[in-house]
Write a structure and sequence with these properties.
5% of the residues lie in helices and 32% in strands. The protein contains five helices and 23 strands. It has helices at residues 41-44, 139-142, 146-149, 282-285, 288-292; strands spanning 10-12, 49-55, 61-62, 71-82, 92-95, 102-106, 109-111, 119-120, 126-130, 150-160, 175-177, 182-183, 188-190, 193-200, 224-233, 237-246, 257-261, 267-272, 274-276, 309-312, 346-354, 369-374, 387-389. The longest helix is centred in the last third of the chain and has 5 residues, at 288-292. Residues 1-27 form the signal peptide. One of its GO terms (biological process) is cellulose microfibril organization.
């Protein structure tokens, strides 16, 4: 996400193009560039959001050999095309995997439930969330620029079941758009392609009256809401505030442990109101961060893990001038239901985050993904992908 002026950000739980120039014969003019292939007729006829899954040929058997339950490599492509007159914000697609698939990689998406890859997705299917291209503009907005109206996600994984062939491409059971406000019929199959055309429930094509408000999504409801706000931004680092709010009328959270995944090699330099479970900067010293920040004293930094785990501070640190003195901090990880005590239903901490190229500017910012939170003797919480909403501080 990019900053809009000096407004802070909030998250709620909420090509390299290579041109190869070859010498041309002076006797023969260069052949004209071929036109791109026409889109499938199903996509061209869809005036909403077109979603498809294409199986990329038969997969080879992989070890171990087990004739009764053989594993095969599979690859496929999920394509989301916005043919509507309204921008599609934070696209989400459900893929109904049905052959005990294990998804190993997805190049332009993350799992919406925050699970890291590889992940078992073949029991109940999975929801893909767009990252880093989460929003798809309209053809009207972009003069038909497909790089802004369409995204294709390449999937690679393993699956079980019958061997794939031309008559059995091992397609998912179904595919559909999971964004609120859209209706999708049953998906259709043609050869190695599964597709569906989804329409907005509200077909009014009136543009938003406030363009600034249209940049943000409505806030979602949930038992826990996690807000990630940028308080101040600089070329190389920014100050973020994280607030965890309990909205459940009965459930409490004890000794919470919050985790996420950095997507661009960021690292935590300093914190107030919470602390990393592991204080270790060795991954920075021996990694790309150490090569870039040659003059930095990494002994003063806190954590360089790609997936850090953060814990709350004890009450004895509430008035600590170095790491405390922050409202709603330092409660030993206890977050009560608002019905029990609204003043103790939120935990807050701040952290200084350093960035890496190519994001070394005030507006370059990529939100962390794959959030998760656990507590002692607490119910399991499942976090959705972050959404860009209006600021809360």
């Amino acid at each position: 996400m990019a900053r809009n002026g000096d407004r802070p950000y909030s998250l709620s739980f909420l090509i390299l193009l290579i041109t190869l120039l070859l010498p041309q014969s002076l006797a023969q003019p260069a052949a004209p560039a071929p036109f791109p292939p026409p889109p499938p007729p199903q996509k061209a006829a869809c005036n909403g959001v077109f979603v498809s899954y294409v199986a990329n040929g038969g997969g080879s058997a992989i070890a171990p050999t087990n004739p009764s339950n053989q594993a095969y490599r599979f690859s496929g492509a999920v394509t989301v095309t916005n043919n509507d007159v309204k921008e599609l914000k934070a696209w989400r697609v459900f893929v109904g995997f049905q052959f005990d698939e294990v998804l190993v990689s997805a190049d332009k998406a993350v799992l919406d439930d925050g699970s890291p890859l590889p992940a078992a997705v073949g029991k109940n299917g999975t929801v893909l969330a767009g990252f880093p291209q989460s929003d798809l503009k309209t053809a009207i907005q972009t003069a038909g620029d497909s790089t802004q109206t369409e995204v294709q996600v390449q999937l690679i994984g393993s699956r079980f079941g019958p061997p794939p062939n031309d008559t059995n491409p091992a397609l998912p059971a179904n595919i559909t758009l999971r964004n609120a406000g859209y209706s999708c019929p049953d998906s259709s199959t043609q050869g190695n392609m599964l597709w569906v055309c989804c329409q907005r429930n509200d077909t009014a094509a009136t543009p938003p009256t406030d363009q600034q408000d249209s940049n943000f999504l409505p806030r979602q409801s949930g038992d826990l809401i996690i807000m990630y706000d940028i308080l101040s931004a600089y070329d190389t680092n920014y100050l973020a505030q994280v607030a965890i709010s309990n909205n459940h009328p009965l459930a409490r959270l004890d000794n919470w442990q919050l985790s996420w995944e950095w997507m661009r090699d960021e690292f935590i330099f300093a914190m107030r109101g919470a602390y990393p479970l592991l204080v270790d900067t060795s991954e920075c010293i021996y990694g790309s961060q150490g090569q870039h920040y040659l003059q930095m004293d990494f002994s003063q930094a806190l954590n360089c893990q790609r997936r850090p785990t953060i814990i709350d501070l004890p009450p004895t640190r509430a008035n600590d001038s170095a790491i405390g003195r922050l409202p709603f901090c330092c409660r030993n990880g206890t977050i009560l239901p608002p019905n029990m005590d609204p003043t103790k239903s939120t935990s807050v901490f701040q952290m200084q985050v350093y960035k890496m190229p190519p994001d070394l500017n005030r507006t370059g910012f990529v939100p962390p993904q794959n959030w998760g939170i656990v507590g002692t003797l607490n119910p399991d919480f499942q976090c959705a992908s972050p959404l860009q909403v209006s600021d809360c501080v």
